[in-house]
UniProtKB/TrEMBL annotation:
Organism: Symbiodinium pilosum
PANTHER family listed in its UniProt record: SEC14 RELATED PROTEIN, SEC14-LIKE PROTEIN 2
GO terms for cellular component: cytoplasm
Stated name of the protein: CRAL-TRIO domain-containing protein
Residue ranges of coiled coil: none
Amino acid sequence: MAPASPDDEDAEFLTSEEKDFVRTLRQRFHEEFDSREANGRAYRCFFGAIALARILHAVDGNVEKACEWFQAFLRVISEAGVEDLIQDMIRRFEASGSHKIEASMLPHHDTVKDFYHAELHAPQLASSGDVIMYLPLIDQDKNGIMEHMDWDQWVTYSKAATILQCVELDSLSRSSGRIARIVLLVDVEGCSFETVINRTFLRAHRRDVVDCFQQKVAAEIVSKVYVVNVPWTIANLFTLCKTFVPAKFLQKVQVLSGDSLRDSSFVTECGGSEQIAALYATRMGLAANSSHKAHKELHHLDLWPEKDELELVAKLREKFADDLEKRTKSGRDWPCFFSDLALARVLRGNEGYFSESVNWFQNFLTKMDEFQVDDVVSSMTAKLNESAVDRGCMSMLPHASAIEKHFRCVFSAPRLTPAGDVIWYLPLGDFNRKSLVEEVDWAHWVEHLRAMIILRALEAYKLSAAQGRMAKCITIIDLHGSGTTTTGFPRVEEFDDRNQANLKFMRQIAIEVFGPAYVLNAPWVAVKAFNWFKALVPERFSQKLVLLDGDGTSNPDFLELVSESQLKHLLATRVGLVSGETDANSGETLVAAGDCFQRCRELRGGETIAWSFSVVAGDGDGWFGASDIEFSAVLWLHPEFAQDGQPDEPQEEDVVEALMVQASEGEISGKYTALRDSVITLRWSNEHSRMRSKGLRYRIDL
C-alpha cells in the first residue's frame, strides 16, 4: 500500500472511493511522488489528496483514464518554466496572507489590465461554498491583446491565473472540509457577436493556453457556469448548438436572459443580489471601443496587397530575414509561399494580427522541413509548368491512377468564376474512404493529398499573378450519394482518424488559398437549420460555408458564379463509388425514376470515342407504354488539356442533341472524333419519368 502523505489529515472528508484512488495513483507513480516529496516539489494544489481526487471526478471515475490524465499532466509541468511559475504563484498567494486571490497577483497584470478585467474571487462565496468568479466579456478586449501585447505575456498571465486558482481552491477545500470549486458568472451585457467571437484570438488562446495547459493541469475546478444578460440571438444560438455539446458540459451551463436578479435560485447561489449588482458595476467596457486597425475584412477580398499590408509584409520579412535569405540562396524561395502576395495571405489568414502571423509562419517553416515540402513543391511546379496551362488536374498528382478508383473529383473546373477564381468540384459520393484505406497504401494517399495541397497553392499563385488579384479556390462539395443524413456525414473510423494528420497538414501549409465552400444536396433539415444559424451571426463568420437546396440549379447567384452549363458538366462527372458503382465502359444498369446515368471521358485530339446502347423492355410496358430513355452527348473543349500556352475559353458543343430512344428500337450506336483535347459526357436521362425505372445496356470504346 502507498504511504500516506502529510496532507492526508486535511483531506479526511474524502470518500472511501476517492481515498482508494489517491492511494492507487500514488502507488503507480510512486517514483514521481517520492522524488517530489524529497525535493519539496510535491505541491499540494496538484499532488495533494484533494487535487488527486479531482482527477477521478474529471474522468467520471475511470481509473485508467485518470492515470492517463495524470501522465499528461506530468509532461506539461515538466516543460520549461512551468514549475517556476507554480512556485511563484504559491509564494504570491502565501505572501498575501489572504484566502482571496486577486488579479494583481498575476505576472504582467499592469499590462493586461488595460485589455482584460475579471473578478477572480467575489467577496462572498456561493451558497454551496464555492468561489464565485465574475467574467464580463465586454472587458475582454481581444483585439487589444492581439495588437498591443506580447502574446507570450498573455499566455503566461493566463497560465498563472489557472495555477493561482488551483492554489486557492486547495486551500479553501482544506479549510471548509469539502472539495471547493468555482461558480463562473459570464456576463455578455453590451457585447456584440464580434466582441464575443474573435476567431484568431480564440484559436491562438485555445492552442497556447486551453488545450496545452488548462485542460491538462486543472481537473474539475468549475462546478457551474451562469451566462447572463444574453441577447436573444445568442440564447437561440446556444439552444441550436447544445445538441452537439457533451451532456456533461451542458449540466454545468445555464444561459439566462437579462440580469436575472429576479431569479431567486441564481441570486442565492451567487451570494445575494447586492453582490451580483456590485459585480455588474465593475464592468469597464474595455472592449466597447476597441478597433483593429488592420481589420478591414481583407480576408473577404481579393485585392492585391496595398501599402499598409506591404508594410506588414516587410516587417514579416525582417522578422524571418535569416530563414528567407537561406531559401533565396538555395533557390527554395517559392513564390507560392514566399512572395509578397503569399505573405499577404498569411496576414489575411490571421486577420492582420502581426504576432499571430509570426506564430503561424514560424510553424509553417518548421513543417516545411519536417514534411520535406520543398521536394513536393519542386515536383509539382515542374508538372504544372509542363502542362502549359495555369491550372492543375488530378493526373498531375502522384498515384492518381490507383486512387481514382476510390476518390474522384474535378480538381479544376473548365471555367473560372466571373471574378477569376478556380472551382474545385468534390462529389463525396465518389469518395469511398472504406475501399481507399483497404486497397491503397496509406503512404501513397498521404503523398497524393500533400501534393494536392501544394498544387493548389501553386495554381493560386499563377492565377493571381496573371490577374493582378488574390485568386482563390472555390469548393463545391456535393453530398449526393455520400450517405449523409441529418445526423451528419457517415464516419469511417479506420480512415477518418488517420486522415486528421492530413487535414492538419493542409491548415499548416496553405492559408487563404481556399475561398467559400458551397454544399449541394444536403439534407433539407440541415439546410434550413444552417440558414437560420447564418441569420444570427455576422457574415464574416458564415461566408466560408454555404448550404444550397438541392443541386444548386435553383439558386441564381450560384449559377452566375459557376455557370449553368458548367454545373451540369460537373454533376455529370459523378460515378457513385460509395454505392459500389464503377466507372466501367460497359455493362447493364437501372436508371431510377427521375434520375439519369452518365459517363464522362477525356479525349485527346484525333482520338475517337464510339458508343452503343439499348433500352431494356420492362414488365410494365404493356400498362404504361414502351420503356424509353433520352440520350445526348455534350462536348467540353477543356483548357486543362489544351496543347498551346494560351488555352481558349471552354466551349460547350452538342455532339448528339437530346433524342428519345425506346426499347423497341434495339441497339443505337454512334461515334465522335475529337478535333482537339476535350471532355465528352454521354447522358442517358430518365428524368421525364417519375414513376418507372428503366433498364439500360451500354458499351463505350475509345
